[in-house]
């Protein structure tokens, strides 16, 4: 199966939904989750620096989402609503050129008081950045920038 001619850029809007790509995506997301949790087990989250821009990201989150309370459980329905998607998309696009993998799907704890579990984890794809083959109907996702912003605030 080919993605196109060698050297050609891949247009995510025209790419097919390849099962192997989905599996690779899931493996990377689980690796990220496992690594992050292992770090949290050894060090308080408040002592971590997730990016070189943590302070800027935190201030931006407070400005764009003044209602966000890092101690509360994330309202998944609100996050994946039309308005929620638009707000997060605008937030994330600020980091398109400055944060590597800013739009990569990442698992996010919905409740900061619990570790990752099936009930307490938000995953899927939020449809914030158009990616062929994925839709909001498959669940909610945390994109890497959402993960950074929320975990920095926590």
Automatic annotation (TrEMBL):
<dbReference type="GO" id="GO:0005737">
    <property type="term" value="C:cytoplasm"/>
</dbReference>
<protein>
    <recommendedName>
        <fullName>Polysaccharide biosynthesis domain-containing protein</fullName>
    </recommendedName>
</protein>
<dbReference type="InterPro" id="IPR021148">
    <property type="entry name" value="Polysacc_synth_dom"/>
</dbReference>
<dbReference type="Pfam" id="PF04669">
    <property type="entry name" value="PBDC1"/>
</dbReference>
<feature type="domain" description="Polysaccharide biosynthesis">
    <location>
        <begin position="21"/>
        <end position="123"/>
    </location>
</feature>
<dbReference type="InterPro" id="IPR008476">
    <property type="entry name" value="PBDC1_metazoa/fungi"/>
</dbReference>
<dbReference type="InterPro" id="IPR023139">
    <property type="entry name" value="PBDC1-like_dom_sf"/>
</dbReference>
């Amino acid at each position: 199966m080919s993605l196109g001619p060698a050297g050609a850029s891949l247009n995510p809007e025209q790419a097919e939904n390849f099962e192997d790509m989905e599996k690779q995506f899931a493996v990377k997301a689980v690796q990220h989750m496992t690594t992050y949790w292992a770090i949290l087990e050894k060090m308080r989250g408040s002592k971590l620096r997730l990016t070189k821009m943590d302070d800027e990201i935190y201030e931006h989150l407070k400005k764009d989402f003044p209602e966000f309370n890092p101690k509360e459980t994330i309202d998944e329905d609100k996050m994946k609503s039309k308005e929620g998607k638009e707000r997060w998309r605008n937030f994330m696009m600020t980091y398109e050129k400055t944060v590597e993998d800013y739009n990569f799907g990442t698992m996010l704890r919905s409740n900061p008081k619990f570790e990752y579990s099936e009930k307490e984890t938000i995953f899927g794809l939020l449809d914030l950045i158009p990616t062929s083959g994925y839709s909001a109907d498959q669940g909610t996702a945390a994109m890497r920038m959402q993960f950074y912003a929320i975990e920095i605030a926590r």
